[in-house]
Specification:
elongated; 2 domains; Antioxidant, Horf6, Chain A, domain 2; alpha+beta; 6 helices; Glutaredoxin; 4-stranded antiparallel β-sheet; 5-stranded mixed β-sheet
Amino acid sequence: MTITSTEPAAATMLRLGSTAPDFEAETTEGRIRFHEWIGDAWAVLFSHPKDFTPVCTTELGAMAKLEPAFERRGVKIIGLSVDPVESHEAWAVDIQETQGRRPAFPIIADTDFAVSKLYGMLPESTSGDPRERTPADNQTVRTVFVIAPDKTIKLMLAYPMTTGRNFEEILRVLDSLRLTAEHRLATPANWRRGEDVIISSAVSDEEAATLFPGYRRVLPYLRVTAQPSA
């Protein structure tokens, strides 16, 4: 067994605000303990049903190219696939050749499906040799988790195997999460960093006038202000 969970075998269903389950696992950068690896940073865990799959090849290449943007935000990246480390290493060669950049972040070798089951991506009954399973057998291992420094889950997105993930959207969500963790604000639809933001409904008009001078009232429940500087 290459992965040892530090959580009970029957994990509670994960929701936004749940504590991200901790675990120990082998990765392309050695053995890690997940919460210790995250430390005081934000983290993105994104999973793949199997190595050498076409859509996932493009995704890992896209994430590798965006890694500097995540690093500037103090965000750690970690991938997961059910195949062993040596398979991940061979796959990285293909990613480098076809996508122009090799992943520099760790990729978990979830060969006993422990992390996939812990995070609710595969049923508890899943077992056997991962090399004998097809991508379709693991098609639900296609989830993105954004985890805050306090180890709570702030975002969960599940994608079908036929649709490549938009990691620019993950960056956009992280910008919103980091901003709203520090200020009593929310972000509107399609918001991008630097655009106006929404004042939380928990902030009274009196508080808003002090915290966000010059804010605009669009509706009694919709008050808009410039994004505070970082």
